[in-house]
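Q: Structure tokens for this one, please.
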Amino acid sequence: MWGFKSPLAHPMGSFSQRLRTLVMDPAVLQRLHDEVAKIMHMADIKAKFADLGADCIGSTPEELAAFLRAEMTKWAEVVKAANIRIE
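A: Here is the predicted structure, written as tokens:
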């Protein structure tokens, strides 16, 4: 899926990434990915992201899912180690 990464390396989810978490027909997901990828490759879109200090990045839906799983695992460990609780 396509999104962007801030200069602080904080992944900022895109609309398509949020949709990925929904139960979705694989063909619909692939079409959405393909269309968003086309848009993210447009020079004016890349320039607008650059103006915001962000770089366009891209991955497959499977790579995004693996990244999100790894992030959840990493941050769960931080929360546990710091004994962070919901108030």
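A few notes: Strands lie at 2-5, 11-12, 55-58. The first helix runs from residue 15 to 20.
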